[in-house]
């Protein structure tokens, strides 16, 4: 039987009484206990980041990650951020935090990141390590076949669910939501924004408690012409409008950081796959946008309509993995621009500065 955690509820579920979803959905489990999940985003950043420098970064990371304590899966992606910088991104997944900690000790990555050379030159580097208990994550997939993210790790299985098709379903899929409302320690106030002196500095950011991080993905390789046309001409523009609204209205939406990422092939060319990595002050703020704003309702209605139309023959895969962080997650930024990731929003310590 797949491993899962459930609590006796003290916080009411959001699922309407008698609800049955109109379209099938799936979620991730493991056939062994997985008490803690680790997802680490490594980035190189530059105003004019060309492929040779980006490739060299990936090659160096792969060399360091290729060990007995390395990750169970990894992917490479590219993002052009709001400040006009190109970011080369490698995400790595572990389901054993001790193995990850051992990798940090043995790989030499920390020493490389902290070296004086990283503080100089035209590139910045960042590392955002998401470490959460199992009960603070949830996943959903439109179909069971395609594997991505944590679903590529060992002993993972994708199982059918019925906790979908209503607003608040993502919250209900989080085991801890049965006993914790997951409120922001800032209440309804936004997290104060700062602009740290980050160029030439190695800064460490303590991410606020209950910040919610969502990776939402789209995969259309192999889709037939009709479904491909629908995605490119109808759904993708709706996704772009929604992301643009979040990026341009951060104080109102509670969006702290947003990266629109394209998955890469080995040679650096774009694949038929994208994902968005968003950080929000709380799950509640993400839910408010999802349930009430027209930009998300357009996405939601279209996705539901296509899944009802095609059912199990749906060829465009959509999915997400969501994490609600606890106090203690620390992100690192070396020689980055001051709007990178969580730099403007967390408690910042300076590790080293030229």
Please tell me about this protein's structure:
This protein is α+β, with helices and mostly antiparallel strands and 354 residues long. It has one domain. It is built from 8 helices and 14 strands. The protein has helices at residues 51-65, 97-106, 109-114, 169-173, 225-248, 250-253, 283-292, 294-310, and strands at residues 25-30, 36-46, 73-80, 86-94, 124-133, 137-141, 156-161, 201-206, 212-219, 255-264, 270-280, 317-324, 330-334, 347-353. Strands 6-12-9-11-10-3-4-2-5-13-8-14 form a 12-stranded antiparallel beta sheet. A hairpin with a 5-residue loop joins β10 (255-264) and β11. α7 (283-292) crosses α8.
How does the SSE layout of this entry go?
Layout: E1 25-30, E2 36-46, H1 51-65, E3 73-80, E4 86-94, H2 97-106, H3 109-114, E5 124-133, E6 137-141, E7 156-161, H4 169-173, E8 201-206, E9 212-219, H5 225-248, H6 250-253, E10 255-264, E11 270-280, H7 283-292, H8 294-310, E12 317-324, E13 330-334, E14 347-353
Antiparallel strand pairs: 1-7, 2-4, 2-5, 3-4, 3-10, 5-13, 6-12, 8-13, 8-14, 9-11, 9-12, 10-11
Summarize the structure.
This protein has helices spanning 51-65, 97-106, 109-114, 169-173, 225-248, 250-253, 283-292, 294-310; strands spanning 25-30, 36-46, 73-80, 86-94, 124-133, 137-141, 156-161, 201-206, 212-219, 255-264, 270-280, 317-324, 330-334, 347-353. The protein has 354 residues and is α+β, with helices and mostly antiparallel strands.
